Amino acid sequence: MKLFKHCMIIVLLSISICGQTQNFQELYKSGTNGYASYRIPAIVASKSGVLLAFAEGRKNGSGDNGDIDLVLKRSSDGGKSWSDLQVVWNDKDNTCGNPAPVVDQNTGRIILLSTWNLGADHEPQIINQTSKDTRRIFVMYSDDEGLSWTSPKEITSDVKKPEWTWYATGPCNGIQMESKKYRGRLLIPCDHIEAGSKKYFSHVVYSDDGGMNWKLGGTTPTDKVNESTIAELPKGKLLLNMRNYTSTRIRQTSLSDDGGITWSELKGDTTLIEPVCQASMISYKPKGSKPMLAFSNPADQKNRMNMTVRLSRDHGNTWTKKQVVHAGPAAYSNLLQLPAGGIAILYEAGNKNPYEGIVFKVLDMNEFK
Question: Residue 330's domain is classified under what CATH number?
Answer without folding.
Answer: 2.120.10.10
